[in-house]
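Q: What does the assembled structure look like for these inputs?
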Amino acid sequence: MGMRKVAVIGAGMTRFVRRALETPKELAWQAAHQALQSCELTMDDIEAVCLGTAPDSFDGLHMNGEYLSDGAGGWQKPYMRSYVGGGTGVFVPIQGWYHIASGLFDVVLVVAEEKMSSFYPHAQAAFLTIFDHTTERPLKPNLLWIFALEMNRYMTTYGISKADIARVSVQHKRNAAGHPAALLGDSQITVEDVLKSEVLAWPVQRYDVSPVSDGAVAIIMAAEHVARRITDKPVWIEGVGWSLDTAHWTNRDLAYPRYVESAARMAYEMAGIKEPKKEIHIAEPYDPFDYKALHHLEGLQLAERGEAVQLYIDGTAARDGNMPVCPSGGLLGVGNPIAAAGLMKIAELFWQLRGEAGERQVPGHPRRGLAQAWGDLMQVGTVVIMGR
Amino acid sequence: MNDQVAIIGVGWSGFKPFTPEVSYKEMMYSAAVRAYADAGVDPRRDVESFVTVAEDFHEGTSIFDEYTPDQLGAALKPMHTIAGDGLHGLATAAMLIKTGQFEIVAVEGHSKASNILTLPEVTAYAQDPVINRPLRLNTHFVAGMEMNRYLYESSTSHEQCAAVVVKNRRNALWNPLASFAADLTIQEILDGPVLAWPLTCRESAQNVDGAVVFVLASEQRARSLCEKPVYILGTGWCNGSASLESRPWAQLPYVEKAARMAYQQAGIREPLKALDFVEVDDQYAYKELQTLEALGIFTFGQAAPLTEQGFTDPDGDLPVNVSGGSLGIGHLLDATGLSRLLEVVLQLRGEAGARQLIEPQIGLAQSWRGVPTTSTAIAILGI
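A:
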């Protein structure tokens, strides 16, 4: 028996902002309500709810998923929260996929919410307790430092300059200028601006990194027979993949994300994709830092190792290029409320593939797109391939 | 798609109030090695996906899922965490297999409760930060309120709640995994220290450390790998109202809904007739009574007199918590549902030793995620 086909039929998102006045429940409901309205459904049509949100310590809430349940629509319904750190945003649609592909449900609401501003004075401190309590925490590592290590390793291995990496940040922030929900869209930003920004942990500078943000995104997923009844333009989930590497990140070669490759290969196999560079028309790799987008494009087999930056130099990655990368504006431009940022990429593919992306629309009627997120200790890759 | 999913391996370790000799990783490893040996599978070669259940604040580590793959043999494989009870994890693993994408999936849950120095403060942090936290409600106080309302509306007496403790802790005498086995009288329970009136200390389960691992497989793989597969006939899970203010306090509509979902999958119309035994939540003694009614096994108000009459004893018509329950074994935080499911599997396989029931065919396990949640999960197993 073949696998059950699953489609995305609706999407909605709140604005991504630095400090939302809404409670986490309210943010989750705003996104869920928009997604329902986009496909003219109500909560009565929803059979189950999947939630994604990253560490509880942001909100200082034990069992944050239980707290968010009614806000996310999980009232008197089967409701579960899945979790793979920063990869959660692209995992939660995978959770929706298996809810439906298993045959248990036909219509599922998928919500991702993050409120990082509750952590005072800065959400970075929530990351102090992600490290191994015996071997690493005594060294008091900070998340920015380990990204700096990885960025340095990536640059050194392949001889890539800071100025070339800055092109990623510039393009994504420019792309975000057309996004009504974006926090850091800027059509005028230049490579010079990035290189002149404040140094946070060398080689990471202020504009190399995405902002701390609050926000929520929701999508509606449905089985084939329901999707065809509700919309003329379902966007199908063609492949999913995820892979969690060992926790011993210090033993890994940080120059290449093999866990992203492993997740991508699973998704390509499911989607029947043999030549990803030709068959993927839009890529939304995870870009919490500018070098990360490059790193992930290589892991996704969309560029040779050390050569992803060429896609930005030769214009392939531009909105009107052969394979637009992060036409949404990505995390660097739209913002990075962790789990919500990942699901934002899925929503972007939904809008792009339906031709509903407005100012951000990629020309040429793209047929297939890929979204990817990453998380934990340089450790997890989550990949979703969508097509119309 | 795979239509049927079976449990082909179980493993456990710990089940003690204190385990200073092992870390949570070592406990997970021991449980996993046993489960893989029981199923006859190699995790690196045969197990295609892994699910663990955990909550960051119970672990003392943010983004705890980082530390889950190595000790299970899951590195560089599709693995994810469900922030839920072990039975939510089981339902997830079953869904993964039903998609047809995976044939063999492992589920893990663990508790290292003895590492948590401030558990009451941690659980209080699960309350709504805006509306409830300023009231400084203790977790057990909320349970005491619920108990009081339940006793009032269902005309149940405190003695009848205490009878649950007597039964479960006595059942635990025959369970080598149980830490709180005892032969008590109703009066000893009522005379014990009060936790949050009317709830007494002895009506509240104490925590233990432990890890439980299950290996699940599609029907086809189960038949080739296992002589006695235990089939998952139905799973159900549901959330009710997240806020304390807008929920009914005597009845559990979310358990009713989850049960309906599971019964429908299993083709069960009359649970009392169909089920041979059940393992239900008893973090607090009254919860067992309340849950049996919500599961549709007894009508509202009937669970207490029937318990008193021995209907739910191991030799009664419907044995309830023959393992000893959380009151007898101890509560394993997020792994509690899996510890109860372990009993269902052992009973159905005929491996329950001194407490073995006579040839049971179908059993049910249910769990609740504790105050202040209205989150439950259910699994029905059969051979």
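The longest strand of chain B covers residues 5-16.
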